[in-house]
Amino acid sequence: MVKGLSHIVYIASSDELFQNTLEFYKAFGFKVLTAPNQAEKSEKSEENGKEAWLKMEANEHIMTSNITIRLLLNISCVPKNKPDSDQDWGLNESALALSVFDVATVKSQLDILGCSYQDRSIKSFSGTFQLIEIYCLDPLNNTIIFSNKPAFPSLLETPLTGPGSAEEAAENLGPKRKIGVLTSGGDAPGMNACVRAVVRYGISKGCEVYAVYEGYQGLVDNGIKKMDWKSVRGYLSVGGTTIGTARCMPFKTREGRLQAAENLIKSGIDSLIVCGGDGSLTGADVFRSEWSGLTSELLENERITEEEAQSYTSLTIVGLVGSIDNDMSSTDITIGAVTSLHRICESVDSIGTTALSHSRAFVIEVMGRHCGWLALAAGIATGADFVFIPERPPAGDDWKDTLCSVAERHRRLGKRKTVVIVAEGALDRNLDPIKAKDIKNILTDRLGLDTRVTTLGHTQRGGAPAAFDRILATIQSVAAVDAVLRSTPETPSPMIGMSNNQVTSGPLMKAVELTHEVAKAIGEKNFARAMELRDPQFAEEYLAYNATTILDDNSMLVPAHRRLRVGIINVGAPAGGMNAASRTAVRYALNRGHTPFAILNGFPGLAAGSIEELTWIGVDGWTSRGGSELGTTRAVPGEAVDMGMIAYQLQKFNIQSLLVVGGFEAFSSVINLEAARSKYPSLCIPIALISATVSNNVPGTDFSLGSDTALNAIVDSCDAIVQSARSSRRRVFVVEVQGGRSGYLAVEAGLASGASTIYIPEEGVNLSRLQSDSRHLMAMYMDDAADKSEGRIILRNETVSKTYTTDVISDILKDEGHALFDSRTAVLGHIQQGVNPSPMDRIRATRLAKCSIDFFEEHTSLALEKAFEDNEEAPISLTTIPESAAVVGVSGVDVTYRSVKELINVTDMKNRKPLDAWWMSHRPLVDLLSGRGLFTPEAQATLTRNQAEN
Ligand code: ADP
């Protein structure tokens, strides 16, 4: 059997039925095997004394291969009722589907056996009827469908010999790797996604994968279990770690590691993938470095044989960083941190409403003993008034004064709530801890604020992983398996990280050393070094947070002649993060001395002169709000809106910089505005576009605002759908997602929700694809335990095909599924915009909005300085260079400014998306991890080899 695809269990309630069933299947070519492992026999079958395994191999009559039936005798089992003969047996809840070359031969066989059956024929072009399917019942009243359609396309499509064949792939595989995977240290959401991806990708690469339960404790206690494809089903959506984690003192001793080495060797494991924090990864490296000493000692003490010592001369270690604190150096982000941030933001948002109602102050303590990432990111994402982190004590001699002046200023500006976020390891300049209760006392005593403390504690670890962590864990784990396969005894243990939105692999011990250096730098009061050792974005975000939140004290004002009137407009459909962008742009612009204006209801609003000044307090609370507070429409100037009116209103209100936040219509708008500059001087102002659309289809940025919120909304919906299906029946849901002509949402949500497959415009969909997918689904359902309902989902992009609509695809799958499964549709529609923007969208919005204001200053400085020197008024036309009409986006960790004129060359304007899509590299993983990879030549080779070995 292919690993992961096991067998079907049938239970006979009498000896006679047991024998008849055995004979029945033998008559169709099944061979009787001895039970594979007598020791594993359940008590029940022992009691009843009978068990038989029947296996079907492809032969000259049957196309289907590798079906195994486990037949048990259990007299207490209730026999299945025979379905009515006037009922269509093809619609029976479950069925065994067998593909045969000639259905007519089967019919004769059934006549000989005297079995009742139903048949289905179709009329051919010549007018004759052709028999295509037969539905019959075995002696236990299980339905069997004999059909002339191939059930396992890829098995058949894979040539048995020659190029690309299973045989060739088997030869290329080299010795089979046996990989152990363990999760260790503090649990982190996404660890399960790691285990799932290591198991499935490992199997697809011809490896055997073993789960080590309870972290290193499982190595010491031999808690090692071989995993198959199905062992990790449902793992993606579950937080924590299902295989367990523990702090293991024995592993810190040589004796413990000696025992661990013995257990690994006895299990045949040569590689370990460890997902944990710096402690766990240090432990792994220590283990590897003393491996040869451990094996020598085991040999000396005759705990392993000479042959075993020869076979296990080295141990491969690959590290994955699972840590909610994002505290590891050499990686931009760790598995679990983003989900934890989700939990924090949900809590702070909830606390915000009660704080607002009572005009209270809240001090919220979050995790992070040596790392302030969670506190800082949460501060940005929730618009907190102040944050305390370990790496950078507050400016000024006395943090209490600084805190009070900021909180008091914000109150004077009209705020009814004060929120302070403090990392549990926050320190002052003298390295004295800053504790939540100290902050509370200060706010109460000095400012008279009704202040409460909330310690979020373990809520931060819990809950379903965010889409980001599922994807991160999946792609990193795939890289970890690849690293195992590439490894040699000489290569240092790698740690899989993330840099610039790319998966990286670097020396594990170097990363651990750098991580320890942060704590050391803090201990030496070298705070600049501590910040430097974090990822580059961390320092930038810290500055951005201060510039937009703390420094509203007139300390950042630009000279009067450089101050601008900044217009902010939303275009296109609402997207999570639009309001956060407006809020930061307003607050930062005010801190710099500019005057921000809201342009209401998009370009039609601008044409109508709907412009009003925005105030500091007017945007309070916008960070966490979904939708568009400014109002948004799709109309594009120069198309649906008159360009002359736009130019007129910009001139009338003397708008000197324009921040456009929106999707592809916003991109088209900026192109048209830039092109019309030669006609209208008032358009000769800097124009920044922050992409905001769930579809993530605007060029010039890796991510658009709203796309992360949408992914989370889709993934949450898919989790609910799968749960419902699993509880009731075998059902496939065809879920329609947005994305326009871009498959981004379907690919990323497909990866994060474990979709069986996806249909995206980049690939299209046709009948043969649907046929192959229905066969794949049949294979999966046939492999499920007989008494299990399983929910599966397929994501279909809304524009993938006019013919194969969501309903049509669902109907085809249902029909082709031969009653093995049912199918339903779910059109998620505007639910995908989400309610509250995700933390990632809020943080991206904040960063890009601040950078946009900097961009405006840069592109107006020349003209304004010249006018100032010449003692003249600021000109209407401030800039004409194409670079001053740009998409302000993210590329990896950097903020980039790319002119729309340049971006047209890399854009498919007709299909409204960039020509290049970085996320397409994730596409093959969706199918592979859902099981289609089982049928690749390599997997076939593994299958061939396993069969030979067994
Ligand atoms: P984290 O991985 O989250 O940093 P810990 O520091 O608690 O968590 O480490 C988890 C486990 O890793 C420990 O319980 C121990 O078994 C193992 N470990 C940590 N440091 C070492 C070490 N220096 N040598 C051997 N094992 C270690």
Automatic annotation (TrEMBL):
GO molecular function: 6-phosphofructokinase activity; AMP binding; ATP binding; fructose-6-phosphate binding; identical protein binding; metal ion binding; monosaccharide binding
Protein name per the record: ATP-dependent 6-phosphofructokinase
Binding site for Mg(2+): D278
Function: Catalyzes the phosphorylation of D-fructose 6-phosphate to fructose 1,6-bisphosphate by ATP, the first committing step of glycolysis.
Alphabetized UniProt keyword annotations: Allosteric enzyme, ATP-binding, Cytoplasm, Glycolysis, Kinase, Magnesium, Metal-binding, Nucleotide-binding, Transferase
Listed PANTHER family: ATP-DEPENDENT 6-PHOSPHOFRUCTOKINASE (PTHR13697:SF4), PHOSPHOFRUCTOKINASE (PTHR13697)
Region entry N-terminal catalytic PFK domain 1, spans: 1-550
Lineage: Eukaryota, Fungi, Fungi incertae sedis, Mucoromycota, Mucoromycotina
Family: Belongs to the phosphofructokinase type A (PFKA) family. ATP-dependent PFK group I subfamily. Eukaryotic two domain clade 'E' sub-subfamily.
EC number(s) given by UniProt: 2.7.1.11
Region: C-terminal regulatory PFK domain 2, residue numbers: 565-950
Sites where the protein binds beta-D-fructose 2,6-bisphosphate: 634, 693-697, 731, 738-740, 798, 824, 830-833, 912
